[in-house]
Write a structure and sequence with these properties.
Helices cover about 25% and strands about 25% of the residues. The strands form five sheets. Strands 1, 2, 3, 4, 5, 21, 22 and 23 form an eight-stranded mixed sheet that branches. It has a six-stranded parallel sheet with strand order 11-12-13-14-15-16. The protein starts with a strand and ends with a strand. The model has no long low-confidence stretch (mean pLDDT about 95). The chain is globular, with a radius of gyration of 20 Å. It is of the alpha/beta class and about 375 residues long.
Length: about 375
């Protein structure tokens, strides 16, 4: 199947006008010289890769940490319809046995690959190796110091479905944990009260990711610079940012892209089960009661717990906030694919990649979703 007259986001991270071909669910040609007359005319529509959310707890009143397979499928169905064709759901700070059940369900969905559902490409293990002071909405009862043996068992038992593991670098044994875990998956600095020195040591040890930039970490101080400058200085580190319009001020979003550059930013939703529910809904988050209030999930004390926004909306928010369209699209597609080691399968419109793509209007208000070359 050939498509022509498209504005295509290419592997050069630029938009180019032309055509592409899909065969057997795979991109077979991009910007080919010869295009058949009967190619489908997209009439100038923008074509971008399917989006990839590497930090998403849930939606539709379901959460990865529930350990419920049908709930996980409901999450994947919602995401696919929203233009998120691949995802790596995030867990919460919970006991190992609860995490093991959640990861087993993730492994099952990743292996089964049901048609019409967002592809589960991994899991982000958000907790339990966090600072009490910066726990945010994480449950303090289950926090623990870095435990590589426990993590390795979880990792092996779920067949390596964990693609990102989070850690606060100031905790005892953190550097040693990072050095070992980074050989298995991406290690991310998160929920931390770390100073600059501990953060730098973490990145030097092999951490290459920063979970939800600005949130649950110290701000930048000129005498005590902390985590963020340590991450900016290391060219191997990518930074997530929640661009739902509530977690981060637009000026801080622009600052983040200025500091890290478009090649190192990752847009995430950090959505919870409240995503897709009506305003005022009560829901459970990591064993705690929370409410959808004024468009965002909050704990009873008002602490922001999670977003209620999908990644497609986060991407369009970023563009509306002044982020270059090319950088915003890259931060929602190729960069997150790299973070979970899936860039050879998804995240770009390139020969040999899975043909997951979105056909969008020029202002992104209308979108058609294709997975494996088939429109949902």
């Amino acid at each position: 199947m050939f498509y022509k007259n498209a504005r295509i986001f290419t592997t050069n991270f630029e938009f180019e006008n032309g055509a592409f071909q899909v065969e057997n669910g795979i991109f077979a040609a991009v910007l080919p010289e010869n295009v058949p007359d009967d190619a489908i005319d997209l009439k100038g529509a923008t074509v971008i890769p399917g989006l990839i959310d590497v930090h998403n707890h849930g939606n539709s009143n379901a959460d990865l940490s529930d350990g419920d397979y049908e709930g996980l499928k409901a999450m994947a169905a919602y995401l696919a319809k929203s233009g998120v064709t691949s995802f790596a759901p995030a867990s919460m700070t919970l006991p190992y046995d609860v995490l093991a059940k959640a990861f087993a369900n993730a492994r099952k969905l990743a292996d089964e690959k049901p048609e019409g559902y967002s592809r589960l490409m991994g899991v982000q293990m958000e907790g339990p190796y966090f600072s009490l002071k910066k726990k945010g909405a994480q449950n303090a009862d289950y926090l623990k110091n870095p435990d590589f043996e426990g993590f390795e068992k979880l990792y092996n038992d779920c067949g390596g479905i964990v693609r990102i593991v989070d850690i606060a670098p100031e905790l005892p044994g953190a550097a040693e944990f990072i050095e070992k875990a980074s050989k298995l998956c991406t290690v991310s600095v998160a929920h931390t009260d770390s100073d600059y020195e501990h953060a730098k040591a973490a990145f030097d040890a092999g951490a290459t990711h920063l979970t939800h930039l600005y949130n649950a970490m110290p701000g930048i101080n000129h005498r005590n610079p902390g985590v963020i400058p340590a991450a900016v200085e290391n060219p191997n580190v990518r930074a997530e940012i929640i661009c739902d319009g509530y977690h981060i001020h637009p000026a801080a979003v622009r600052l983040a892209f200025s500091m890290f550059g478009g090649s190192r930013m990752i847009l995430v939703s950090d959505a919870g089960r409240c995503c897709g529910l009506p305003e005022g809904s009560k829901f459970e988050l990591g064993g705690q009661d929370a409410w959808l209030k004024d468009g965002v999930g909050r704990l009873g004390d008002g602490t922001i717990a999670c977003s209620a926004t999908n990644l497609y909306k986060c991407m369009t928010n970023a563009i509306a906030f002044g982020i270059d369209e090319r950088d915003a699209v890259r931060a929602a597609t190729y960069n997150p694919a790299c973070a979970i080691g899936a860039q050879d399968k998804v995240g770009s419109i390139a020969v040999g990649r899975i043909a997951d793509f979105l056909v969008c209007s020029s202002d992104y208000t209308h979108v058609r979703v294709f997975m494996g070359g088939k429109e949902l």
